[in-house]
Amino acid sequence: xxxxxxxxxxxxxxxxxxxxxxxxxxxxxxxxxxxxxxxxxxxxxxxxxxxxxxxxxxxxxxxxxxxxxxxxxxxxxxxxxxxxxxxxxxxxxxxxxxxxxxxxxxxxxxxxxxxxxxxxxxxxxxxxxxxxxxxxxxxxxxxxxxxxxxxxxxxxxxxxxxxxxxxxxxxxxxxxxxxxxxxxxxxxxxxxxxxxxxxxxxxxxxxxxxxxxxxxxxxxxxxxxxxxxxxxxxxxxxxxxxxxxxxxxxxxxxxxxxxxxxxxxxxxxxxxxxxxxxxxxxxxxxxxxxxxxxxxxxxxxxxxxxxxxxxxxxxxxxxxxxxxxxxxxxxxxxxxxxxxxxxxxxxxxxxxxxxxxxxxxxxxxxxxxxxxxxxxxxxxxxxxxxxxxxxxxxxxxxxxxxxxxxxxxxxxxxxxxxxxxxxxxxxxxxxxxxxxxxxx
Amino acid sequence: xxxxxxxxxxxxxxxxxxxxxxxxxxxxxxxxxxxxxxxxxxxxxxxxxxxxxxxxxxxxxxxxxxxxxxxxxxxxxxxxxxxxxxxxxxxxxxxxxxxxxxxxxxxxxxxxxxxxxxxxxxxxxxxxxxxxxxxxxxxxxxxxxxxxxxxxxxxxxxxxxxxxxxxxxxxxxxxxxxxxxxxxxxxxxxxxxxxxxxxxxxxxxxxxxxxxxxxxxxxxxxxxxxxxxxxxxxxxxxxxxxxxxxxxxxxxxxxxxxxxxxxxxxxxxxxxxxxxxxxxxxxxxxxxxxxxxxxxxxxxxxxxxxxxxxxxxxxxxxxxxxxxxxxxxxxxxxxxxxxxxxxxxxxxxxxxxxxxxxxxxxxxxxxxxxxxxxxxxxxxxxxxxxxxxxxxxxxxxxxxxxxxxxxxxxxxxxxxxxxxxxxxxxxxxxxxxxxxxxxx
Lengths: 440, 440
Known about the structure:
Two copies of one chain form a homodimer.
Chain A: E1 16-28, E2 33-39, E3 42-48, H1 55-60, E4 66-75, E5 90-101, H2 119-124, H3 126-129, H4 133-155, E6 159-160, E7 166-167, E8 179-182, E9 185-189, H5 194-204, E10 206-214, E11 227-236, H6 241-262, H7 264-270, E12 283-285, H8 286-292, H9 303-317, E13 321-325, E14 348-353, E15 356-364, H10 368-377, H11 386-393, E16 399-405, H12 406-414, E17 427-428, E18 431-432, E19 434-435
Parallel strand pairs in A: 3-5, 6-10, 12-13
Antiparallel strand pairs in A: 1-2, 1-4, 2-3, 4-5, 7-9, 8-9, 10-11, 11-16, 13-14, 14-15, 15-16, 17-18, 18-19
Helix pairs in contact in A: 4-6, 4-7, 4-12, 5-11
């Protein structure tokens, strides 16, 4: 019989159907066996009654067995209905169970309520824990974030390109960059598609990419990984950095709206509260921000100050977000555009939310002469960025862009404590899928 | 004045507008200067007449200068209209030119007709050649291929995940795999998301990914790169490998339709002829294919045989495509599902088009016991694929999937001679962006 998806069973009351999926829960009550079955569209309760031709197979079945189950969709008696769960008003009266694949006894409790693993165990057993609704909810939200980013950029006329992972020796030096044995030469893993997106911008004006970036972070924190998904955009013909600010704000707003709309169930399951983005996100220069905090000028914000600033803004305006712009020019990369009226400060910006940075960006230098001056002042080797420099040597419009990490945004939206929870296959100093403590 | 996009000028006849873009062509005719201007939406001709307040600036302007141009949109006299080019019925009468960015003299002819570079030169100057309409057309088609793949998979209920680039030591051995210095350990670059997509399939049933894969191919051919974009899909609860065949066929059909619809202009510019996919793509077992070719059985198809088979099928049916399935089990990876009725042959498949492979896939082993037998027979170390094996130890449905390379499909659809033409930032044995012949 044709498979019916569990999510569609509500329209099949009184019908005989076949579902296919996994046994999430099995309760053997002697004469009868109760089940929770699961497929990609949800869960449903089933029961094998004493007279069911499937009662013997039902007794053999175990958690995580893959089964094809035939039965009749019955409406539950009023007193047994549960409006809080999917298919809480129906039950499948099982007439046949076909075991498609057996499972060994589970190494830990995978039930919705009993699941309570330490993070290292969850990651060690990612192949199994990925089946848990709570874990799935995180990655469903992440998929929405990434897809909504692409959707928004396409709506705004941005062109998608594929930024490379393998890069030649970087001009900015070798700190925290992974080295690749490239035949008889050395190559490296990209830390950012920054220079590539600027190159492609000079040809396509508005560009974006969803690509991996790599950082050889030699420390283990709750916020750092060695491999993450970077969402990058770059736009030409801006009038000022404020055009970049506005585009990034509209992008984040769109993503938040899409997550709220498409992942309401997941947000509820995870107990997550979406951050509030008001009509116009408060925007302060670094100098204004430090002043507001009563801190000495000329320094960057430290993490504690970022937290306090977000609290103050939230209290004053209701906004969970705040833009800070205008950082000390010399402290930022060579390509960031200095404010023409006050070149000690640049037109770079960060978007903070709930105390941490969500996104950064700003205006870039597009004038070739000014770019070459910075290359010299920053002590860089122009040969190592020749392709980038070529793009600007032959006419490049005023431009800027922004970037953020998919895992970090997932973590922040969902209020997770560790970025590893928002990463399907974790790579850090001590782990590639599994712990590296045993020599591989 | 607000910027008008060049693609919208046709609706502005008689109006004064400001466009922003690049100077593609400049013809100084003494008293007058003619231009072709270019932005992301197309090109338009402009003229600075002798009495124009912009005539002096027009004479200073050079190719690839970035400009903001103000002028009046005039309908051309009937005899000067050219229906074959965009905006061929209008002309911009220039009243002002604001130079936003200058360009040095170009190292080669970038005009639409004069552009004629050897491939190595095109790649050495990717930052500049990316501006050429012919080069842009290729990557616009590629963006459609990638985006249509995602669109199709989402329509079919597939979940997008991010496959990792950095992987631990692979169980299949170290041939053609790049090594990464991973702190004090070794890691590698993924050759395929195969095992990861199978893992995620056991949790989400239907999954896809768009991710980089890497191959340390120690030879320089027209078809191989070290870094490519792999489009991967995997689906659970199949009845047979034919479900995978059907899904992959529908996917390719959708991509072809989208390219034909969205990139008609680019296909015309590149002189490309889309391959013909008939209602049901001819599908032969390897044995049948060899028999048809009059070749001895039990061998795989060689490139010459693939070409001849495609020609024969095209002649007989009109189809540019043909599926071949049922390869010798021992010659393929351990996870491919052997035909239960004839275990010497498996349920793997390839889709050929115009003489070359476009896509491969097939059914995989989902039974844990059978999988472990193969692991042993293939001489693999189960510890090195422990996460993969865990997914199948705890109940995995009958399943299969397919994969193809974005660059290769771009190359084949467009009839390009070298895969490097279909790659924005080429990585091969001799090149990472630029030639590696100079030590970096």
